[in-house]
Amino acid sequence: MAKDNISQDTFMTESPSTAEKTQSAESLDSSKAKPPRFQKVVEGAYDLSLGISIIVAVAIGYGIGYGLQKLTGISWLLWLGIGWGVAAAFLNIYKAYKRHKKELDELAKNPRYNAHKYLQDSQDTDDEDDPYDR
Fold first, then answer.
1. Can you spell out the DSSP letters for 61-128?
2. From residue 87, how far is each of 56, 113, 129 by CA, in Å?
3. Contact indicator for 60, 88 with CB cutoff of 8 Å
4. Whole-angstrom Cα distance, residue 88 to residue 107?
5. What is the pLDDT of residue 105?
6. Cβ atoms within 10 A of the Cβ of 63, count?
7. Non-local CB neighbours of 107 within 8 Å, separated by 6+ positions
């Protein structure tokens, strides 16, 4: 009998209370509802960092090419490194383009910004019904 009381007491102390469960559920719901605190700062940094990333990519490519040229003595490795840097810069531009295109496509799906399509459709139907338009 003493064993049963001890196991029940241990079980009772290990399980979280209803208030704790509710509190943790509310914190999960509130984290889903709120965007991250620095989300706008990060999005702005993505936009500002495109120009910087192009320069850094070419500079790193130049550094790799220069290092390979000094290490091996082959002169065209410098130009190969610069080519890698330029390719990395174009890759950064492509990634930024895809990110912005995705954002604009989401805006295009928003009914708030579809007024042009609505107006165009309504003008097409109005033209057919107008008896005075000949």
1. HHHHHHHHHHHH--THHHHHHHHHHHHHHHHHHHHHHHHHHHHHHHHHHSGGG-HHHHHHHHHHHHHH
2. 12, 36, 56
3. yes
4. 29
5. 87
6. 13
7. 113
Nearest to 80 by CA among 93, 90, 67: 67
For the cut 60, the answer to whether the pLDDT of residue 44 exceeds it is: yes
pLDDT at residue number 71: 95
Q: Alpha-carbon distance 83 to 62, whole Å? A: 8
Tokens of 50: 């495109």
> Is pLDDT above 70 for 13?
no
> Is the model's pLDDT at 4 over the cut of 90?
no
Do 54 and 36 meet the contact criterion of CB atoms below 8 Å apart?
no
Token reading at 37: 């605190």
Q: How far apart (Å, rounded) are the C-alpha atoms in residues 77 and 25?
A: 58
Q: Whose structure tokens read 């943790």?
A: 24
Q: H/E element holding 15?
A: none
Residue listed under structure tokens 């989401």: 106
Whole-model pTM over 0.85: no
> Hey, what are 99's tokens?
């990110």
